[in-house]
């Protein structure tokens, strides 16, 4: 049902087996102690054989309880109420069988020779265990186990949900990468062709190297959902260097990144739609060119990232609302951080500013053992 490794399932099953058997031993031992103390206090404990008979009786009931678990353990997963419903018929059956065993033991150990010689004598039934008298003990065990089984099922569902969120995030990252590559490669190859036709082989070679580096960086980011901001900035710098081949002096770039933010962890390619938005809807529609500014600052336990431009767009104003790229970015932030991550975007004078707000996290550890922790405010 859940996407878990066989080792995880085996370890979880071992834990459930251990708890079920321990609960069975616990409830029947507690019932034995309760019987012993009650019999001793009211003076009905007359012979050691009674203790042996009761011990044998409770060992049998313990084995019956373990049998219920062995029947049900492979038929899950169960919710707490689901386990109680599934175990109820077996509990009643085991309690009935338990009553028959109790009668046999009582008949064997507590009947006098004269009474044993008279098979029609049923007076012993008045003193023998009453029918289903220990049903409540079986149900107590079932309720104990149901809480453990239900909790295990809830944990499994949480793991499955977290795994589905990660898979969804990876799918969105792949979709974003596939959106980026086609038109970037198309534009870059056109620029390289133009440079070759102009016999600018050095510039064409440099552009090809930049394109190769950008594709290598984006393909590497496909395996990591989070990456240091410094690496993300390097990817965007290469991308903007490629765009400079098309726009030449019309494109100016400025970084406004605080030094202590460069090691912060951010979703891979999270800035790409923002930079593309500034290129496509800002610089691409501006006659005078534009400056694109990429900034980062820390505000307590929050990281602020932004991309803005000062492009004076000719003709119709920029479209309002979020396009596909910004919607994708906002959705990724919500998937990763919930309410702690958001995207704010809108016009600033003649330009446009898109700002990401997310938890400030850094990578800690050494060697292969790494972890992510939120920095304290």
UniProtKB/TrEMBL annotation:
Transmembrane domains' residue ranges: 20-37, 57-74, 86-111, 131-152
Source taxon at top rank: Bacteria
Pfam families, alphabetized: His_kinase
Domain Signal transduction histidine kinase internal region: 171-251
Keywords assigned: Membrane, Transmembrane, Transmembrane helix
InterPro entries in the cross-refs: Bact_2-comp_sensor_kinase (IPR050640), HATPase_C_sf (IPR036890), Sig_transdc_His_kin_internal (IPR010559)
Cross-referenced Gene3D superfamilies: Histidine kinase-like ATPase, C-terminal domain
Protein name (record): Signal transduction histidine kinase internal region domain-containing protein
Organism: Brevundimonas kwangchunensis
Source taxonomy: Bacteria, Pseudomonadati, Pseudomonadota, Alphaproteobacteria, Caulobacterales
